[in-house]
Amino acid sequence: MRQLVLPLAAVFLSACAYTPIPPVDPQQAWVDFTTPTPGSKLVMAQRLDGKNLDDGRFFQMPPGPHELMVRFDFEVPAGGGLGGLSQMMYRTCFMTLQYDHFQAGQHYVLEGRSLAFTPNIRLYDSTRQLLAEERSVNCI
């Protein structure tokens, strides 16, 4: 019986950890995240207008001006050592972006990119028009 309890417990716990993304609210603006850069591990929401978010997979917010903070993890060469530049490590950066014209019902994409040690984020509308770029970057 014990052998059956552990696998069942694992199934129930994993089901609790997964929460689906809520449906899009047409009264709000929606921001998805993406990264086309190879070696990028994560682009995730951290804060909206200075408040921490419960779910970092997206932003859904009322129309108007907003400040977004995202976490961006990406690979950089570790350098030195026996492996030379072939060894990689992850760098974590927190970046903020201000955009004053979010519109209800609109779908936006926030794209994280990196060039070596330099990250950036860009906000695009649904037609891929560039709307804003990060205004501050803090990497650890």
TrEMBL record:
Protein known as: Lipoprotein
What are the protein's UniProt keywords? Signal
Domain of life (superkingdom): Bacteria
What PROSITE patterns does the record tag this protein with?
PROKAR_LIPOPROTEIN
What span is annotated as the signal peptide, if there is one?
1-17
